Amino acid sequence: MDTAYGRPHPPASRVPTALRAPLSGRTWREFLYLIVSFPVSCAMFCYAVTMLSLGAGLLITFLGIPVLAGGLIGCRGLGALERLRARALLDLDVGRPEPVRAAKPGMMSWVGAVLKSGASWRHLLYSILHFPWALFAFVFSVTFWTVGWSLLFYPLWQWVFPAYLDQPGIQLWGNGRGDGLYLDSPPGMAIASLIGLLTVLAGPWVIRGLTHVDRLLVHGLLGPSPLATRVSELETDRGVVVDTAAADLRRIERDLHDGAQARLVSLAMDLGLAKEKLAEDPAAAAKMVDEAHGEVKVALQELRDLARGIHPAILTDRGLGAALSALAARCTVPVKVSVDLGQRPAAAIEGIAYFTVSELLQNVSKHARASSARVDVWRVADRIMVLVEDDGQGGARTETGSGLAGLAERLSAVDGLLVIDSPAGGPTVITADLPWRG
């Protein structure tokens, strides 16, 4: 497996996050999102209510159904713009919902598919529900943010009150006859600035909390449904399984062609020459037969290794514990194996667990620079846990194209999960979570 080790991490900033947050790009992008949300949601709300009312009112005629379908399609288009806005300002990447698929060609079939689409109605619901929330978030965030910054810099613009408003400063209390309490003294202005500073420091977290609700709305109403997401994952996993099986078949064909098959062809030629020399030169023929006998042993060993790579006989006969112990014995570092399952899982899951440990131990041998390793396998409810730990240099990553990335894809194809904890300097702990399916 191709992994990287010992890469330096970027230096951390010396300024605390709480002090950097008010000036960070993320805060201002999220604030801009809340400001823009008000006019955008207002337009979406007006469009959705108008089209829904018009379509519902025209249902007594034939025109109501296509008008309602057109309104739903318009809401889907507005939802696409909302996903783009969320991606640009909130760094929220929400996939497109399932498309409208008509069972038959034709206008009425398409209209029926639109009306039956749950995603279309979720877009309409978003257009209606988002407006009151956007109005509240706009008023609250703008008020909170502007008041905080205004109070923070109050000493710089306090002169506006006596110069243009005929009062010494911000009035905290008054009786309507000119008497009152004003923030015009240095201590009062310092208190106002302190309150402004605390408000500004709290502002990013308030804005982040407001945009979190927007994230939930966009993700829950404008994205694909959980069922559609699950179907897409299963289709992807099926593709991974097919690609993996095809790659395994190509590997087996290549190993047979370049290994055992080539040796058997050479062996047949040598035996043919020995047969020709048998009458005229028995000694030379005997020597050639002896060499052919050695080639047979090598070819048999290659076939055994190939069969072990497809599915080891010890795994079928004696189970995962014995197979992993045999695997650990071939590792270049001492490996302690512990298997606590009680009973054997399904053969497919058992095979995946075996080859997962095989690849991880190969990684230990080739890349980890470890002096020891351990393998633990146990069962938790309806899951089987496989842990491989080594005391090497660490730094293992699931980068695109690496062996660990491919292993993670193969595990996900059977509803499995690969978790990697490998800080620079080690140790490396990799855990595979697989379904039991006994």
Write up this protein.
- The chain is an alpha+beta fold and 438 residues long.
- The protein folds into three domains: 20-221, no CATH class; 230-310, Single alpha-helices involved in coiled-coils or other helix-helix interfaces (Up-down Bundle), CATH 1.20.5; 315-435, 2-Layer Sandwich (Heat Shock Protein 90), CATH 3.30.565.
- It is 66% helix and 10% strand.
- The protein contains 14 helices and seven strands.
- It has helices spanning 17-20, 25-57, 64-90, 107-116, 118-152, 154-157, 160-165, 186-221, 226-280, 282-310, 313-318, 320-329, 347-368, 403-412; strands at residues 170-174, 180-183, 335-340, 373-380, 383-390, 417-421, 428-435.
- It has a five-stranded mixed beta sheet with strand order 3-4-5-7-6, with helices on one face.
- Helix 2 (25-57) packs across helix 8, helix 3 crosses helix 5 (118-152) and helix 5 (118-152) packs antiparallel against helix 8.
- The relative contact order is 0.09.
Brief digest:
This protein is α+β, with helices and mostly antiparallel strands and 438 residues long. The protein has helices at residues 17-20, 25-57, 64-90, 107-116, 118-152, 154-157, 160-165, 186-221, 226-280, 282-310, 313-318, 320-329, 347-368, 403-412; strands spanning 170-174, 180-183, 335-340, 373-380, 383-390, 417-421, 428-435. It has three domains: 20-221, no CATH class; 230-310, Single alpha-helices involved in coiled-coils or other helix-helix interfaces; 315-435, Heat Shock Protein 90, CATH 3.30.565.
